[in-house]
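Ticket #4471: complex job returned nothing on first submit. Input attached below:
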Amino acid sequence: MPRLLRVAAAQMGATQLQDSRQHTLDRMVTLLERAAAQGAKLVVFPELAFTTFFPRWLLDPDEVDRYFENAMPNSQVAGLFERAKALKVGFYVGYAELTAEGHHYNSAITVGPDGTILGHYRKVHLPGTVEPRIDEPVQQLEKRYFKYGDLGFQAFYGAEDWHAPVMGMLICNDRRWPEAWREYGLQGVELMVMGYNSAAYDPNGGTAEDEPLRTFHSTIATQANAYMNATWAISVAKAGVEDGFGLIGGSCIVDPNGVVVAQAESHDDEVLIADIDLNACLQGKTKMFNFEMHRQPHHYRRIVDQTGVTLPPKL
Amino acid sequence: MPRLLRVAAAQMGATQLQDSRQHTLDRMVTLLERAAAQGAKLVVFPELAFTTFFPRWLLDPDEVDRYFENAMPNSQVAGLFERAKALKVGFYVGYAELTAEGHHYNSAITVGPDGTILGHYRKVHLPGTVEPRIDEPVQQLEKRYFKYGDLGFQAFYGAEDWHAPVMGMLICNDRRWPEAWREYGLQGVELMVMGYNSAAYDPNGGTAEDEPLRTFHSTIATQANAYMNATWAISVAKAGVEDGFGLIGGSCIVDPNGVVVAQAESHDDEVLIADIDLNACLQGKTKMFNFEMHRQPHHYRRIVDQTGVTLPPKL
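Support reply: We reran it on our side without changes. The output follows.
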């Protein structure tokens, strides 16, 4: 018997440094309403959805906290929460989190159709550097502005109205790390949700990676990790050109076979809709990826016993 | 400065139960010679290359050992080793291993151009069952005929003539397990080699997986795991219809971006050639997948602390 759920990926186009919070929130409410009008019960927004991707800038220390949310919800974002609750639609959204203790995280929450926060995640795999790279026009300073996520990978149940899927959240770079997916796979995940801001090219010209290749990387990591954990996945971009620097699009909804069932075609605000059967995960979970039958954890010790590479001994 | 190596994937078509060992060995020598004639220095053969995929049959116990090699090389396979050494070509080959102690493994070796055995691997992720499934026309009895590999995932150096790449071996089902790839990634692997025999469809009709989907699974697992570990990968099928039961083809050579640079088009004996630059791994290993900078092993404990799924607690 299928467990059907209509979901939406709400890709967002660029948000400029000077865009007002209200302007961005209005765009998000519009995307939410478009998804709800098509019957979606769960809408997935990108990473750091309420602002531009500010870690590309070396900011004045006094300026940093204005990109952060000191509570969720709060007055700046309440409009999205209120509209979603009125429409009985839940959502995933990425945001910059400032805790009462003054700690900063790159975070995401999943909110149920009644406005309850069902899950809270803090990004574990922060890319970039702490110190700015000199003489470069753009930075990737996530390691400067955020602490590493301290909540691990804690799966949770989605709303009853969604057939209570086992859900997991990731943020951007996390989706390239199979360890992160496997942590959720080992909790029986059926629906992974994640947002991202991924550079379309290296503005410093330091690499041979162009936008099609970077979009391919994003897509294939999502496809294969969904397959290898027998889960649905919804992976959503903030896309387009933010203050001169390009972000890939390619938002996608992927089935437990790793097959892309919907993918964004633009770099703008765009809604993807799919009807997903959560029970499509059962084939993989009971056969090829029946972990209890087939995994051999005593052979996986390097994964936790070392961080970096240790070359084999020279003979 | 590039470290260029010309490699070959030697896909094999079907081998029937009644095919003589000599007939199969002659085909392998022909593939080796075709690859060598095109300048390949390393030729990758499939899993269990010397025989049909015998674990599909419930064999009389007295019949089992004739599919196994009690030494490597031995008189039955010596012709391949001798021809390779004469041509100064090395190879990976999968075979059924019978040890002096009477233990059975699904194994592979990589042999250098001078005939030295550079690495030895025993398959860790055995699919299938110990007991035959009743009333089914074909079985998957790897868990019956083989012990689980006890050597772990030990990377090794390829021949100096190949620019001494850090190499890793997998066998068939292993390639779908990101833990296996990561074990090698954590040893700095630059070239993964693996063979497989993968059913093209379920002859019992129990699943919705057809041959294109199964080939896609095989390819995408290789692509994404190569990308996420910044390594080249050569993945080689035994393909075609063996005694009425189909095996997928799709042998491929994949670069460290996860891009397929060569893929088989047939289900027959077929040689793929590629010139690979081992230094193409450096981009991934020093940036996106700089493990020392970005991995967070304290969050990966479930990977070794549990084998099967533990659902999140109900609230």
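Chain B has one domain: 4-293. Closing as resolved unless it happens again.
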